[in-house]
Amino acid sequence: MRRKPRKSANPAGIVTVRAKPGARTRALVSFAGRTEEAAIGRSGASMRKREGDGATPIAAMRLIGGYVRKDRVTLPPSALPLRATPKNLLWCDEPRHALYNRPARAPFKPSHEKMRRDDGLYDICLVMDWNLRERKRHGGSAIFFHLARPGYTPTEGCVAVSLPAMKRLLRYMRRGTVVRVVG
Question: Residue 2 domain-assigned?
Fold first, then answer.
């Protein structure tokens, strides 16, 4: 009798983000047998993520999709759903607002992040499910997987990689891929 091969428990894959030894705002991102350099939050990684603390949450977060500046970058094929970033797209980070940790459209007065940035950090911006399904006020918002600044300077709590690394990752990622930050 032949046995059927076992299916992976998570066919969408896992991307592991581990703090780089000796550098609390830097990380190593491992996926599909590769390791890439990354930046994480200015406060390092934390199990107690709060709005504005600058920490990257220690958690397993699923990728749900993302945004891309198609006028600035060319993407490799990816199974991850990616949309063009509209000019008026914002992300609400005001804990008292009904759209907290959700996309919003300009004009929008409450506190927010612009998704079309001049510095290119969000030219490719992947949305992870941190505090999205059951939002906790002040639980942290706009935790993205995006492009890094030169020198991998710290983020406000996101995970950031270089453009070449992001292009390699996108070939591997799909909806449901788990980004596991282990601290």
Answer: no
- Cα distance between residue 127 and residue 145, in whole Å: 7
Asked whether residue 64 is assigned to any structural domain, the reply reads yes
* Total number of domains constituting the chain: 1
Tokens of 167: 């292009």
- Per-residue pLDDT tens over the stretch 31-56: 999 999 999 999 999 999 999 999 99
Instruction: Say how many C-beta atoms besides its own lie within 10 A of residue 76's C-beta.
Output: 10
**What single letter denotes the amino acid at residue 170?**
L
CATH classification at residue 68: 2.40.440
How far is residue 29's CA from residue 51's CA, in Å, rounded to a whole number? 24
Phi and psi dihedrals of 165, rounded to 5? -65, -40
Query: H-helix or E-strand containing 89?
Result: strand 89-92
The torsion region of residue 33 among left (phi > 0), alpha (psi -120 to 50) and beta comes to: left
pTM: 0.91
